[in-house]
Structures are given as C-alpha cells and as structure tokens.
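We emphasize that the prediction below concerns an isolated chain of 373 residues; any contacts that depend on oligomerization or on bound cofactors are therefore not represented. The input was used exactly as deposited, without trimming of termini.
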Amino acid sequence: MVAELNALRDQIDEVDKALLDLLSRRLNLVAEVGEVKSRYGLPIYVPEREAAMLASRRQEAQQLGVPPDLIEDVLRRVMRESYSSENDKGFKTLRPELRSIVIVGGRGQMGRLFTRMLELSGYQVNVLEQEDWSQAEALLSDAGMVIVSVPIHLTEEVISQLPKLPDDCILVDLASVKNRPLQAMLAVHEGPVLGLHPMFGPDVGSLAKQVVVYCDGREPQAYQWLLEQLQVWGARLHKISAVEHDQSMAFIQALRHFATFAYGLHLCEENVQIEQLLALSSPIYRLELAMVGRLFAQDPQLYADIIMSSESNLALIKRYYQRFGDALALLENGDKQAFISKFKQVESWFGDYAPRFLKESGSLLRQANDNRR
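Result of the prediction step, given as a token string:
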C-alpha cells in the first residue's frame, strides 16, 4: 500500500513541477504583454478580454472533466499576480508636456503609492511635507498638478494654506470625504479642480480592477488625461457628485466601520479567546472575524476621521442604533413570527441581489476555508 501510494505521489509531484514550468512560461509572456501595453499606452486591465478568456477556459475545462470553478479560481489568482508584474514595465506618459507634479503629503502611504505610479508613467514628482512648507511657494510656483494627500482632518486646512498656483495647474485631493474638500479647493484655486477617492488601501499590488471615484470640480477637459491615465493603470472609474459621494460613503465607510469598531470593542470587553473562536468557527465567521481584526491593525486616526467627518454620519449611526434596539425588542418579547416577518421584508428589499450575493460569497468562503490551518 505504501509503495503504491508513494508511486502516485511521485507522479503528482511531477505534474506539479510541470505546472510550475507552465506558470513560469505564462508570467514571462505576461511580461512581454506588459512591455507592449506600456509602449502603446494600453490599460493593463481589459474586462472584455478577461471575461472572454475565462469563459473559454471554463468551457474547455468542462470538456476535459475538470471543474470549471477550479480553473477559474486558478486563473484569477494567476491574473492577479500578472497585473502586479505588469506594473514593473511602466506605463505610457499620456501628458508628456506636463510640468512637475507636487504631492502634498507624498511621504504618506497613499502619497507614496501615487508617487510610484506617476513616476512609473514618466512624470516628474516632487513631495511637499509639513517640514518643507517654507519652500511651498517656490515648489508650487511652476507645478502642473498638485495632489493633496493628507489625513482627512487636515485636508481642508492644508488646502486653505496653499500659495497661489499657476492658473492652469490641476488641483486634486485624495480624501475619502469629498464635498467639503472640493469646496475648499474651488475657493482657493481658480483653475482646474478634481476630487478623487481611491477605494482601496495603499498596500495594493496593482490598480487593476480597483475603483477610483471622481467628482468634477472645474474645467474637466483639463484633467481628462489624468482620468485616462488612471484607466491605463487598470483602475475602474466611477463618476458621482461630491454630495452623493458623501451620502454613499456614510453607509459604505462610516456606518460599517463604526459597527466593526463596536463589535471589536465588545469582543475585547468580553475578553473572548480568539484562538478558540477560530478553532470553532465556520468559514463565514472566520472571514468576518478577520475583517474585524483587519480594522484594528490599521491607523485609528483614519477611522476616527472617517466616522466623525460629519454630523450626518452621527445621525445615521443613531438611526442604526435605534433599529438595533427595535430588533433586540423582538428577542426580548420572544416574537419569532415578527422576526421572520422582518427577515422576509429585508429579503424582499434585497430582491435579486440576495441570491447573487449568496453565490459571490461562496467563493470567498471557500478561500477562507482553504486558508484554515
């Protein structure tokens, strides 16, 4: 039995080595693709090409008796690595005549990311930090674009202190709230103004598939090239008004982060044993616990700024608190029928999104289970 098993394992090892050789060959081809895309200014992420390729591989897998989900999982992981490696080839400079770009707060994490991406695209980038402010006027006097990348609670103050910029200079901010910073930029600068919100952290390996929200400020034709440059990097753009942006972020960020903060605080105060929770957890709870832990591994000032950025956030959280109390009352009254009725009400409100999210979450849960040790 042992000899038979070892012989089969040896064959599996040989197949694994062949897979490694194929992966190496694929990555080398991706590097060549990256060079072509860089030369011609093509985006590293083309959704139509990716969708068509995955559909073909799934069909071919089924014909070979290989689970289609398996090949898609493998290819998606390989493509994520491929997108990161394509960054190394650089990107075409869409505005080669642009004067220097100054990133205020460029030594911060998001500032460093944008510095890197812009330099990979051939632009000259200078950094302005607090200790350099005495040189701000000289540094900004001939800037082609100024990007403000500072903590939320400092954004409006920093914008208001900017010296006069050249009339054609593009003024951009990267804050996760948009309306007040946008108004501040419009007040201090008479030229092109754009609000950007990168919907990702600074630790991403690639901007492929990452969402960047943008809010028009003034003279959009002047910064159209920048939006196209973001697309060359692989980003997916979403245009929205600054007011609508902040309304949506109240749910996406402020409410969600506060609920996560409160849950983490509750776990801490209850002094639960995390190792025991992990040992007993289902994949979905393990994933939820990981997202809670992720929050507390990051900068508390950032999340305090996001949650406390407006009175409307506080009002929304208070309404959530009220509804939490209403739901708790169902338990106190032992009203199972009312609970089921409310459950069905929410299910109806989700509509077709509920089964769609059930399917999407399945792949995440399988991956969470794969990572179990």
